[in-house]
Amino acid sequence: MEVEDAPSAAPETTSPATIQEEKQSYSIELLPLIKEAQQHHGLRHGDYQRYRQYCQRRLKRIRNSLNFKLGTRHGFKGKKITQETVNDPRFLHIILMEAERCWSHAMELKLYANTEPRKKFHMVRKLSKASKYADDLKDLCNIDQVDARTKLEVQAYSYWMTANMKFEVQNWQTAIDLYTQSRSIYEKLSSAFMDEDTKMLYLQRVEEISPNIRYCAYNLGQGGLDINELMKMRSKATGQDMLAAKIDVSTHNSRLFEFQRKDRFARIHRVVL
């Protein structure tokens, strides 16, 4: 009695959708994205509150589109985004918008920090949260789906955001190191674009970072700046509220010290006479 051979199993086939998913690459032009959002939603006029509210609305829209809501109307339920969660580039946008929301809130609080000490405390906390979100974004982008340019840009953004926090708490050495690394990456990225407008956007970020580096060097005794050069930096610090505020404090202290020195010299001179 002959036994028929069992039919061989059909070879496994990969669907086109699976192949497309495997080859999918996530790319985010981060700096042009946030600069455009900032210009269209308040920061052209220094309105940080309006930009913060935009980030909040944007976060809600992205979460709804991904069905990644933080609970229901009956209660909050936190959800952590991990590398395994990221199967769509919009998850990266969530962390980016969280960082931008905290940063803009910190800049909003800074407007009142000089007169209300409690505001300064909250401002530093918000900057710290923004730095944490930026660092989380850098870690999330350390996956194969994210292209090399995006990884590099997210790294520069993370360094810049953390440097802002260190700058505010006057950790000058760490701030200058991070600002320098961030500026170096943005300089490299600027040469990677053929479009002149995009290239200028990255070079503009380089120019924004450079005065912060010089101010950190000044506080570390490395810059060789005097009060007149600080005033020149202050006049060019348009739109850089953190740097402008720090320079204002430094110039005020320098003038106060100079006044006290001259007054003490005058009193000594009168006694001698």
Automatic annotation (TrEMBL):
Main location: cytoplasm
Transmembrane region(s): none
Any one of the GO BP annotations: SRP-dependent cotranslational protein targeting to membrane
Disordered: region residues: 1-21
Origin superkingdom: Eukaryota
A molecular function GO annotation: endoplasmic reticulum signal peptide binding
Compositionally skewed regions (Low complexity) per UniProt: 1-18
GO cellular component annotations of the record: cytosol; endoplasmic reticulum; nucleolus; signal recognition particle, endoplasmic reticulum targeting
Keyword tags: Cytoplasm, Endoplasmic reticulum, Nucleus, Ribonucleoprotein, RNA-binding, Signal recognition particle
Protein family according to the UniProt entry: Belongs to the SRP68 family.
Protein name per Swiss-Prot or TrEMBL: Signal recognition particle subunit SRP68
Organism whose genome encodes this protein: Clytia hemisphaerica
